[in-house]
Design brief:
Elements lengths: L5 H30 L3 H24 L20 H29 L3 H29 L9 E3 L6 E3 L17 E2 L1
Antiparallel strand pairs: 1-2, 1-3
Bound molecules: fe (ii) ion (2 copies).
Length: 184
């Protein structure tokens, strides 16, 4: 895996920064949800946190030959209040990635013929769509002071695709086998 162009490398670093923060933020929001009586929404946060780790790792691996220091500018959502607001923060972060960040990063990678970056951005963009949907469902329940159900949540270790209940035979985004999915 490699990257040749400075602009694509910058976007990979920024996306790595954004995903790293999302990973940490979801662990914090997840722990808070658990403490406040929403263990299953807490579990959703943990699962999605793992998916963001997959995205960060993918971006990092594309940059593996770019050894050296870098200052990273990346968007991140802050705030730690109640469950409904924390979920709104999560929805806002995912929507930003789906509508603004990844479409631009992806088009740039295509323009610069950066196949590895294109793959990594494409995986993240598509997985974030599921995340936004899952957080919206969780927020609708939280608004009625209800937790999510007990269904297991599964994360694809290759692309971060996240699904509740049943895992498809093959990941719809990357084609990974059902058996490889991580269960939460
Ligand atoms: Fe996400
Ligand atoms: Fe996948």
């Amino acid at each position: 895996m490699s990257v040749k162009n400075a602009m694509t490398a910058d976007f990979l670093r920024s996306a790595y920064g954004g995903e790293s923060m999302a990973h940490m933020r979801y662990l914090i929001w997840g722990q808070t949800a658990e403490k406040n009586g929403f263990p299953n929404i807490g579990r959703l946060f943990k699962a999605v946190s793992n998916a963001e780790w997959v995205h960060a790792k993918n971006h990092f691996e594309v940059l593996k030959q770019q050894m050296g220091d870098s200052s990273v500018t990346a968007g991140g959502v802050f705030g730690l209040t109640d469950i409904v607001e924390n979920l709104q923060g999560a929805i806002n972060g995912e929507d930003h990635e789906i509508k603004q960040m990844y479409p631009v990063y992806l088009e740039n990678a295509k323009f610069q013929q950066e196949k590895d970056a294109e793959r990594s951005f494409n995986f993240a963009l598509n997985a974030e769509k599921q995340h936004a949907q899952l957080f919206r469902e969780a927020q609708a329940l939280a608004k009625q002071n209800k937790d999510m159900g007990e269904e297991k949540i599964y994360v694809c270790p290759v692309c971060g695709y996240t699904v509740k209940g049943e895992v498809p035979e093959k990941c719809p985004i990357c084609g990974a086998e059902k058996q490889s999915f991580k269960e939460f």
